[in-house]
Amino acid sequence: MTKRFGDTVALDDVSFEIPQGEFVIVLGVSGSGKSTLLRCMNALETPTEGEIRVGDDPVTSPRDDIAMIFQQHNIIDQMTAYSNALTGSLNRNSFIGSLLQLQDESDKLQALEALNTVGLLDEAQQSAKRMSGGQQQRVGIARALVQDPTILLADEPVASLDPGSSQQVMGYLRTAARKRDLTAVISLHQVNLARKFGERFTGLRDGQKVFDGYRDEFDMDVIDQIYGDIDTEGMFAADPDEATEASGGSTDDASSKRASSGGMAK
Ligand SMILES: Nc1ncnc2c1ncn2[C@@H]1O[C@H](COP(=O)(O)OP(=O)(O)OP(=O)(O)O)[C@@H](O)[C@H]1O
Ligand SMILES: [Mg+2]
């Protein structure tokens, strides 16, 4: 697939195949094409050349079996967690019907089950505006699950969250994907989180795919390939908790970057 915006080549002949159920993390610096890739996968953008296929079926318009979670939670503040989750069934019901909560029992059960999956069953009646950013993002995941997709796309779902909430949200995403055998494609900026939760990794640079592989190949050289000369200190701890400490201003120099990356490659 190639996607051009005027003279800008946002995606340059990118091609890959994902077996059902894989949990794929897309990495790359700002402007490398991550959002464009995800937006094309959900038909929010049309590729200039090439196509996305689910099975043999080309994706030409947004569809129910592909759910998308955005960086900004875009949930409705005034509604409860439960009502927000329930809007995931919108496409199966009329808009007005959804607002009036005229969904059938199975939709309601799905909403509760989805809230349970993201650890928010106890907060179901909590108004979204009273929830933390991490909780709101989990409501967003619940809503995507209620859509009952087979493919889950997320464009930097944890970009606006602190490290602890980021880990939690990624954990719930991973759990939800496993539980429902969803194919997940998630863009991230944090290499440490990618490493902790990812199964397969796709690296973009200037719109080109510079890496596509599994955990055992995702080492320091690959990270250099994806990020080039960018200062990546603090992104490379073997465990995200270490990265949190490092960003708190403890030991952070070039040698610790290399040392901790050794841990990562294990
Ligand atoms: N609608 C658009 N019109 C024109 N150019 C665009 C459009 N969307 C993206 N681009 C360009 O395509 C390239 C890839 O952008 P994209 O948003 O996919 O990058 P990204 O990897 O998601 O970056 P970030 O990490 O900052 O979100 C950039 O050069 C960007 O300016
Ligand atoms: Mg983006």
TrEMBL record:
Renumbered to this chain, the Polar residues biased-composition regions fall at: 247-259
Instruction: Give the Gene3D superfamilies listed for this entry.
Output: P-loop containing nucleotide triphosphate hydrolases
GO CC annotation: membrane
Return the annotated region ranges for Disordered: 235-266
- Molecular function via GO: ABC-type phosphonate transporter activity; ATP binding; ATP hydrolysis activity
Q: Which InterPro entries match?
A: AAA+_ATPase (IPR003593), ABC_transporter-like_ATP-bd (IPR003439), ABC_transporter-like_CS (IPR017871), ABC_transpr_PhnC (IPR012693), MetN_ABC_transporter-like (IPR050086), P-loop_NTPase (IPR027417)
Classify the source by domain of life.
Archaea
Which residue numbers delimit the ABC transporter domain?
1-231
A Pfam family found in this protein is: ABC_tran
Recorded hits in SMART domains, A to Z, give: AAA
Keywords from UniProt, A to Z, are: ATP-binding, Cell membrane, Membrane, Nucleotide-binding, Translocase, Transport
Report what the protein is called: ABC transporter
